[in-house]
Design brief:
Helix 5 links the parallel strand 6 and strand 7. The protein is elongated, with a radius of gyration of 26 Å. It contains 10 helices and 17 strands. By secondary structure, it is an alpha/beta fold. The strands form 4 sheets. An 8-stranded mixed beta sheet has the order 14-11-10-8-9-15-17-16. Strands 2-7-6-5-4 form a 5-stranded mixed beta sheet. Helix 4 runs parallel beside helix 5 and helix 7 packs across helix 9. The model has no long low-confidence stretch (mean pLDDT 90).
Length: 310
């Protein structure tokens, strides 16, 4: 489900913003849009298609425009903007707030914040942060690991061996992102990012042993705070009545938050080393992304120039 809002105080904390004018409700004021506006046109009086629910960021250009106005025109320009009930005004490059800004903020109870960062760089980082925080999300029962740079989400019923597989993968030099519960966010129309809930970060549960801290056992290089989800591996107990794909010609996908992620289904049976299989599946997926498909290559060798329709 989507997160509909975050508190303005979280933005202040994340970017270490200076509070120039405190409206008294920064802890309760909510941000609901994952974009920002540089209100140059608005300060000039144009408000068509203006989004008042966006954070407003002003830098060199906006201050240069305001500097050329008379005090009364500057007051009118700023007050009109603040009367739109914007969430906050953020000043970049440590510009001093005009007295007219402080007066308008007092009248409308609009927070004014400040940073020393350059405007374009700050905008980029702020939008990236908002898109992550406000992204649609879902929590899934599974394991997320990074194998050779690929984010691999391992799904399956309880007891199928997901955590044991993840532990062996970490021992083989790869990294754990989340065990048991994976928080997945849709940060764009093509990208999913997964992380562990804070309360179980770096932890893994092995039946018969209990809870283990992977970071403490294997070092900081064995864990990662978050990772994109590139490939899904569905583990299921071996069913003798079911026919499994032996060639790898069938292209499977698993849909998460409306995005179809390439996937495979791996049957679990006695004697199968799942960690090696997962590692091999990740490498094979990476090779396919680079344009080589071993199964299709074999078919072309057996049936040169022909289409067997498999």
């Amino acid at each position: 489900m989507p997160y509909s809002s975050i508190f303005l105080s979280k933005v202040v904390e994340r970017f270490e913003l200076e509070v120039v004018y405190d409206s008294g409700d920064i802890e309760q004021r909510r941000i609901t849009v994952d974009d920002v506006t540089r209100p140059g046109l608005q300060l000039a009086g144009y408000y068509e298609h203006f989004g008042p629910d966006r954070l407003q960021v002003v830098g060199n250009m906006e201050f240069a425009f305001l500097e050329n106005l008379t005090s009364s025109d500057r007051k009118k320009s700023i007050l009109t903007l603040f009367e739109k009930e914007i969430p906050a005004l953020i000043i970049t490059r440590n510009h001093e707030a005009y007295p007219e800004m402080l007066e308008a903020a007092e009248v409308t109870k609009t927070p004014i914040l400040r940073t020393s960062d350059a405007t374009s760089e700050f905008n980029s980082e702020l939008i990236k942060f908002l898109k992550m925080e406000l992204a649609p999300r879902v929590s899934m029962h599974g394991v997320l690991v990074e194998v050779n740079g690929e984010g691999i989400l391992i799904l399956g019923e309880s007891g199928v061996g997901k955590s044991e597989t993840a532990l062996e993968i970490v021992k083989r030099g790869h990294r754990l992102i989340a065990d048991d519960q994976v928080e997945i966010r849709k940060v764009s129309e093509t990208t999913l990012v997964g992380k562990a809930p804070d309360i179980i970060k770096h932890l893994i549960e092995i039946r018969g042993i209990g809870i283990m801290d992977v970071k403490e056992l294997f070092g900081v290089s064995s864990v990662k705070p978050q990772e994109s989800i590139d490939f899904v591996i569905n583990l299921e107990m071996w069913d003798e009545k079911k026919t499994y794909d032996r060639m790898g010609l069938n292209e499977e996908t698993t849909e998460i938050l409306g995005i179809k992620v390439p996937s495979v289904t791996i049957p679990v049976g006695p004697g199968r080393n799942l960690a090696i299989i997962v590692e091999a599946a990740a490498i094979n997926y990476r090779v396919k992304k680079m344009g080589f498909n071993a199964a299709q290559d074999l078919v072309s060798r057996v049936f040169p120039g022909g289409n067997v329709g498999v």
